[in-house]
Amino acid sequence: MTASIGKDAHRRLRTAVLISGRGSNMEALLAAAAPGDYPAEIVLVAANRPDAAGLATAQAAGIATDFVDHKPFGRDREAFERALDERLTTHDIELVCLAGFMRILTPWFVKRWLGRLINIHPSLLPLFPGTHTHERALAAGVRLHGCTSHFVEPEVDAGPIIAQAAVPVLPGDTPDVLAARVLVQEHLIYPRALALVASGAVRWREGGAVFAPGADTTPPDTAITVPA
Question: Is 121 a catalytic residue?
Answer without folding.
Answer: yes
